[in-house]
Amino acid sequence: MNDLITTDYGILSIVPPLLTIAVAFYSRNVLLALATGILSGSLIITDFNPFYAMLNAMEDQVLKEVANGSQVQVILIIFIIGGFVKLLEVSGGASAFARKLTAVVTSRAKAQILVWLTGLGIFFTDSGNSLIVGPLYRSVFDEFKLCREKLAYILDTTSSPISILIPFIGWGAYITSLIDKSYAEIGLTENSFAVLIKVIPYQFYAFLALATVPILVFIGREYGPMKKAQENYISDLSNAEAKDDEPEVKEIVIEDSDSNEKIGATQNGAQPTIGIFLYPLGVMLILVAGLITWHATHDGLSSNHIRSTLAISYLSASLTCMEMMRRHQGISYTESLAIFIKGAESLVYISIVLVLAWSLSSITKDLHTADYLASIITGSVAPAYFPMIVFALGALISLSTGSSYGTFAILMSIAVPVGFELGASMYLTIAAVLSGGLFGDHVSPISDTTVLASAGAECSHLNHVSTQAAYAGITGLVALGAYGFAGVYESPYVLPIAIVVLLIVMSVLMRTLGSPIKQLNS
């Protein structure tokens, strides 16, 4: 272990993440790309010995991540949520909800804003956000002929950006611990929670990312890869309608292991009602709110508390759905359990992607990729420009490693002491660390939240990455400029100015390069 700590891999440390990204976009195969990145990193660590590299990749990376308690908990919750979603789909509850919602949501703009607002409400979990919100609105987006890539973008943009702004959940606890450690090293004694509160108005990327969604909806246009994705979606729908004029009835069917009888919403001739959706969902939300409140008022919110809350809430909601299916549709508990397991099985692929993404993150940690990138900060830097440099470096580290948490840990310990020596604003420096890490994580194809957004929307992962990057990249550039401006004129009023700038930039881009969404239907 000591050898790993002292070894300086230099420029080789950035080869695995760069190779992963290159292979992903060339082959459009996420598993191949992640496996390539892991093996290349293990080869570097083992001095290019193929045998030891194979052992390192499997034992010290993949199996080590699988054995990690918190990672196993995340996978278990993903399976539970997958089972619950499948129950809602098979019962017909999700379809009934979509039909009812489309009677209220009468336009594409309202559909997108509703997803955005719901995402803001699920602030307590960045990883669970997409899996909770996505399945609720997939049918709604289908109804209004909006591509799934747009849904994935909204899900991803309301997961980490809202979570990082809430100081009393797991994100806040983690960040305050990093602030405590960094401040102690330079002799500052200010309360870390008070520091985090003062930092919030300067977390430009989080606020700008959240503002981008309503701005795009207000403008009503798409450009770049998102425009192409929407056009392809409409084209596919037109081709499907040309081949079959019959109205599409989407029914998910599960085969009972003991019979060939189809289990579904149409069994017994009963038309599913919205209640079979709302009651289980209500149980889930009440338990989530109650348990979160209980933990917050007793021993504080930890990541473990969040995960246990989600597990208990979704299992209880699943049992509620099973009982309603038994009463109203004559589906036994044994049959419902088979449906639940099928739903969990449908997310095995996503779990494999997550394990490999975590393994690649472990590789970059062993190679000290973040340390190498951080070493870019050399020589004397003007204090006014320091936050802007920190933001750019944080974005680069997070993009390469796929981990905002890891970026925060590495860069906070470097940027705070250096910023203190330079005389830069501590609040701006800390905010730049957080925003930079968040931005890089948002556009990284190997980030777990990016993967989960693709899963929640049920769209191609690489399509999600490319369509999102075109919008998030503009938001990131405006945030970069905001840190440059705030470095000279440190004021919370920089945020509203940045939002206005973002609106202007987006409007110009959409007017010159974009197309109205309604024209894509014609």
The computed structural class is: mainly alpha
Helix-strand sequence: HHHHHHHHHHHHHEHEEHHHHHHHHHHHE
* Radius of gyration using CA atoms only: 24 Å
Helical content (DSSP H or I, runs of 4+)? over 70%
Q: Report the major sheet.
A: 2 strands, antiparallel
How far do the termini sit from each other? Answer: 62 Å
- Overall 3D form: globular
Number of helices: 25
Strand content: under 5%
What is the residue-averaged pLDDT? 80
Short description:
The protein is mostly helical. The protein is built from 25 helices and four strands.
Q: What does this protein structure show overall?
A:
- The chain has 522 residues and is mainly alpha-helical.
- 75% of the residues lie in helices and 2% in strands.
- It has helices at 2-6, 15-27, 30-45, 50-67, 69-91, 93-104, 108-121, 126-143, 148-157, 160-163, 170-186, 192-199, 204-219, 224-243, 275-297, 303-329, 333-345, 348-366, 369-374, 386-401, 404-422, 426-443, 448-457, 461-488, 494-513, and strands spanning 221-222, 254-255, 262-263, 515-516.
- The strands form 2 sheets. Strands 1-4 form a two-stranded antiparallel ribbon. A two-stranded antiparallel sheet has the order 2-3.
- Strand 2 (254-255) and strand 3 form a beta hairpin.
- Helix 4 (50-67) crosses helix 18 and helix 5 runs parallel beside helix 16.
- The longest helix is centred in the last third of the chain and has 28 residues, at 461-488.
- The chain is globular and about 70 Å long.
- 50% of the residues are buried.
- Mean pLDDT is 80; it is low at 1-5, 246-268 and 518-522.
Key terms:
522 residues; single chain; 2% strand; mainly alpha; disordered N terminus
